[in-house]
Design a protein that fits this description.
By secondary structure, the protein is an alpha+beta fold. The protein has three helices and seven strands, in the order ααββαβββββ. The chain has a single domain, classed as Nuclear Transport Factor 2, Chain: A (Roll). Helix 1 packs antiparallel against helix 2 and helix 2 crosses helix 3. The longest helix has 14 residues. It starts with 14 loop residues before the first helix and ends in a 6-residue tail after the last strand.
Length: 133
């Protein structure tokens, strides 16, 4: 349903493609050099990564934060999208899980991204409480 009286003139933004690329090419990439190239493609130079315990500003700091996160996970853990990302008005939301590649998720979460000029300007990471909590 379109409640706007303005005609659409732009192609729709691919929130799912951008957020899945971030999940795979940034949070799923263990090679810091390759990851930094992906961050430079997907994030604004002054982007902010907001995790529950701290924030990182800029490409290098985001790369370092993801390196620390990946180093803290058991070997073989991977991030997988739980559903297609949704978005509108430059805000995208992606739910994800992490755990052994072929096993159950040990943790689930949600990324909320604010896009500016087609790249991530800020990313907020939320961890979901375990079932029953």
């Amino acid at each position: 349903m379109n409640l706007s009286s303005k005609p659409k003139t732009e192609a729709p933004f691919d929130y799912d493609g951008q957020m899945r690329a971030n999940l795979v090419q940034v949070f799923g990439e263990h090679d810091a050099g390759k990851r930094l190239l992906a961050i430079q493609r997907l994030y604004a130079p002054d982007a902010v990564l907001n995790e529950p315990e701290h924030s990182a500003i800029g490409h290098l700091a985001i790369n370092d934060a993801v390196s620390a996160l990946l180093a803290s996970l058991p070997p073989g853990y991977a991030f997988r999208a739980l559903a297609p990302a949704q978005g509108h008005h430059d805000i995208g939301v992606l739910t994800w899980g992490s755990g052994p590649r072929d096993g159950a998720f040990a943790v689930t979460g949600m990324d909320v991204a604010h896009f500016r000029n087609g790249v991530i300007h800020s990313l907020f990471v939320f961890l979901m409480p375990p079932n029953g909590a």
